[in-house]
Amino acid sequence: MRGRTRGPSPLPERAARLWRTLGAAFVILVFVPPLLLLVAGSLTEPGLPPAPTPQLVPDPLSTTGYERALDLGGLLRASLNSVLVAVVAVPLSVLVASLAGFALARLAPRVTAVVVAASLVALMVPATALFVPRFAIFRFLGLTDTLVPLIAPALLGTSPLYVLVYYLAFRALPAELYDACLVEDLSPLRTWWRVGLPLVRPVTAGLTALTFVLTWSNFLDPLIYVYDRNLFTLPLALRSLSLLDPTNFPVFLAGAVIATVPALVVFALAQRRFLHHGD
Amino acid sequence: MSGLVLDGVSAAYRDTTVLHEVRLTVSRGELLVVLGPSGAGKSTVLRVVAGLEPVTAGRVHIAGRDVTEARPGRRNVSMVFQSYALFPHLTVVENIAFGLEVRDTPRGEARQRARAAAETVGCAGLLDRRPGQLSGGERQRVALARALVREPDVFLLDEPLSNLDLALRAEMRAELRALHDRIGATMVHVTHDQTEALVLADRIAVLRDGRVEQVGTPDEIWRTPASTFVARFVGSPAMNLLPADGPLRPGGEAPTLPDEPLEIGFRPEAVILDAAEGTPATVDRVEVIGEDAYAYLTLSAGQPVVARVPAVRRPERGATVRLDVRWADTHLFHVASGRRCDP
Amino acid sequence: MLTPYLVGLLVLVLLPALVTLGMAFTDYDLLRPPSWAGLDNFTALVDDPIFRVALLNSVVFALVAVPLRVLLALGLALLLHRRAPGVGTARTVALLPTAVPEIAYGLLWLWLFNPLYGPINQLLRVGGEHGLTALGRTPPQWLTDPTSARAGIILMSLFTVGETFVVLLAARRALPRDVYEMAAVEDATGWDVFRRITLPLMAPVLALLAVRDAVASLHFTFVPAFVVTDGGPPPYATTYLSLFVYQTGFEYLRYGYAAAATLVMMLLTLAAVLVQWRLIRRYRRFYQL
Fold first, then answer.
1. H or E element: which one contains B12?
2. Which of A59, B139, B242, C42 has its C-alpha lying 20 to 30 A from A259's C-alpha?
3. CATH number, residue B279
């Protein structure tokens, strides 16, 4: 009912807006505290006895947790590994997904139907159902204990869902644009690069962000494939940090904050594209 | 020398044949309009020429070259699409220069020629805008400029005026004709609008269910329609058709008719109302369009007839009138084949 | 252009699925070459009390947590589908926990649930004395009591309904507005509108999301169980299928046995996919799509 004058009395509409705002406030009150507590916990002085009441602002405020986390956990090294994986995997993944989505939008319907069906099936299989056989395959290829298995999902576009999203986006472009490219003698690859990609830029931005979040947060793959401490990514280093002293909460909460911030920042930048469009 | 030859071209969509052995020849510098109702295969003709659809039989020659197997980009044709198919992310000048730049024409030269083409179609003031900021008519001009800039052997225009409002359509129609006369290019223009076809064309090819029904100059199509289909499709309201041995006997000198079932066709403007001795008919309704009025009549035997009369002399609804036509204004068609009969 | 993706699909999904099928019938510890075991793995699975507990845990989790998650996401979508001050922020906020890396999220709850240090029990103890709640009860020993531990993992999962929420939000906003204006003309109350219009119109999406979430729950129970409860408290209160497979394979090096359990997991997935397929077909007929 936005942007419209409704009926003779604006009062019910105003009241409804108020209720909606109250609802929004309630949602915020429920969903924000865990994240605030994460930050608060990370800023607590390690080794203190438990406080009698929950504290949103710890007393005393302390960054010791962060210092210890960086010292003990090798988080710097791990962050570097995580960045390395993301720098290779994210562009590769977006490239694979957009190429595959474009090809699906332009290929014969029968081929497309088969690949889309296979993608949907792949989408349904839970990742945990694949880690044993995947491990066997990577071990057979001699690639365990390298970063390769962490980058490999990029070949799937990180998730077949992203390929399907690109497919829908490219299919939504007017068919005559593709015809015009044919008349101008553009190869499929150049059509993808010069016409397709520029026209689905918002999709690319959103999917790049989501791919980054997924890659950055990937915990299962490193857990299974990587044993060399020097190759640990941030999530894995965080896990070993928490095993080091399971009761020293401020230290591994600090590590958790370090791991969370990049993901949340990228996600917050991207969410406008799929959350608020059409408002 | 011919600009374009379709030699017995057939094409299919899935399992349906949409073109049946189409034969067409377009001379160099000629503007051929392909006219037909929707679903007649008009656009398929263009797409076959452009190479966007494969042929199942026959050959396509462009400027003397057999291009049947060539891919679209190698046929040296350009196309103006119904939706114009401008690239939304490129500016007008980039859109026009696109075809040159992807063919590795140096950027400066491409821009130069793009500007010249824009000048020709009158959109030189829009060069830095994007398609989203243009009106329908402006987009149309940009699409034309993009087609012009490569100086192709054949221009293909797929209902380019159908997305414009009425006034703009008339204006662009005239400009398109003027443009053609100026650059003397070979053009194939597809439309379902008979007025557009009559105004624009050097010659018209009328298409029906994937077959060429008649090819001829606008005059020929209008004055000697080759079949009842052409007769009724061209002209609005459509030509009246009555059995030749029916209630209406035209006046004047009668031709000798062959001894088989025939139909008489005559246009609404050929009908004479208020004839002293004619066939009686009742007036069902009358439409007045400015100075003209169309009277929808029913003969006593039940057949409908439309007559055009000056608005000031229109009959009343429900009145009984007597109507007449002259033999000279009629067309004869064989009932069995629907083809024209010239006795 | 499709090649890299097809390779990925083949090597990372289809081939592993086939390998699972093969490995499930062998004994394999990575050191010696696999040896044929026939149906031994499966008969062992049937008799394995841990596996049976894990299977039961996974099914119970799906039955309890999935409806709660979908309902919660639906509630959020309905609450936040129209504009008002604060609504945009609330949408973003509702998504944020979903974007937190799994491991960080797990560690956060490991702390939140801690009976002594954890803020949850600190909150419950407010107003009480001697470590009891205001009602004089002992606060839940989240990670040491089986029921509380299971409840805790479900609670954790309720904050990460972002994906479902986004889909439902889009679905709600795609509903035709005139239907609601018609209902307003008929003076229908909010509850009637929800029961007779919104719910039936969104039922297809809800059903599909529920099935999808049930399949996904096989996966997203892993990190909480692995990090927060370590499958415990004993005996195996929060050992789900995914954790069972992981421990069998990577801690006890019984890959053949783990593959057999994986196969069971895939069969569950397959059943869910079939349900989903039937749902789609039914709604297609119903709505003449």
1. strand B2-13
2. A59
3. 2.40.50.140
Q: How many CB atoms lie within 10 A of CB A136?
A: 23
Contact B91, B128 (CB under 8 A): yes
| Chain position carrying tokens 């044709």 | B77
Provide the CATH number for the domain formed by A23-275 in this structure: 1.10.3720.10
Q: What is the mean pLDDT of residues B263-282?
A: 87
- The domain limits of chain C are 37-85+161-287
Residue B102 at interface with chain A, using a CB cutoff of 8 Å: yes
Domain locations along chain A: 23-275
Structural domain boundaries, residue B77: 2-226
Q: Which residues of C touch A2 (CB under 8 A)?
A: 82-83
Q: Which chains touch B (3 or more CB pairs under 8 A)?
A: A
For A52-108, where are the alpha helices, taking DSSP H only?
A: 64-73, 75-106
Residue C146 identity: P
Q: The domain that contains B112 carries what CATH number? A: 3.40.50.300
Q: Looking at the structure, tell me whether residues B197 and B261 fall in a common domain.
A: no
pLDDT of residue C282: 78
Asked whether residue B138 falls in the same domain as residue B20, the answer is yes
Q: How many residue contacts between A and B have a Cβ separation below 8 Å?
A: 56
The b-or-e profile of A1-15 (16+ CB within 10 A means b, else e) is: eeeeeeeeeeeeeee
Residue of chain A nearest C131, judged by CA positions: A52
Q: Which residue of A has its CA nearest to B150?
A: A184
Which residues of chain A are within 8 Å of residue C18 when distances are taken between CB atoms? 133
Distances in whole angstroms, Cα of residue B45 to Cα of each of B41, B157, B177, B214: 6, 11, 21, 15
CB < 8 Å from C in window 128-157 of A: 128-137, 139, 152-157
Q: Are residues B214 and B282 in the same domain?
A: no
Say whether both B177 and B317 belong to one domain. no
Residues of chain B contacting A182 with CB distance shorter than 8 Å: 50-52, 71-73
> Closest Cα of chain C to A18: distance in Å?
8
Residues B198 and B278 in one domain: no
Which chain A residues are within 8 Å of B103, Cβ to Cβ?
A: 184-185
Last residue in a domain, options B173, B194, B226:
B226
ipTM: 0.84
Determine the Cα–Cα distance for residues B8 and B5; give it in Å rounded to an integer.
Answer: 9
Q: Is B252 left (phi over 0), alpha (psi -120 to 50) or beta?
A: left
CA distances for C119 relative to A40, B216, C137, C225, angstroms: 10, 89, 17, 20
pLDDT in tens, C72-85: 999 999 988 888 88
CB-based contact (8 Å) between C260 and chain A? Answer: no
Written out in words, the top-level CATH class of the domain with range C37-85+161-287 is mainly alpha
Token pair for residue A63? 């960054």
Same domain? B222 vs B118: yes
Overall domain count for chain B? 2
Give residue for tokens 């076959």: B48
Does C have 3 or more CB contacts under 8 Å with A? Answer: yes
Q: What share of chain A is helix, strand, coil (3-state, %, to 5)?
A: 75, 0, 25
Residues B277, B184 within the same domain: no
Which pLDDT band holds residue A4 (cuts at 50, 70, 90)? very low
What distance in Å separates the CA atoms of residue C67 and residue C79, rounded to the nearest whole number? 18
d(CA B264, CA B260) in angstroms, rounded, equals: 13
Q: pTM to 2 decimals? A: 0.85
Beta strands across the sheet bearing B211-216 = B77-80, B154-158, B186-191, B31-35, B203-208, B211-216
Query: Same structural domain for residues B246 and B184?
Result: no
Q: Which of B201, B226, B251 is the C-terminal boundary of a domain?
A: B226
Mean pLDDT confidence for C242-268 = 87
Q: Cβ–Cβ of A118/C14 closer than 8 Å? A: yes
Distance CA B227, CA B233 (A): 10
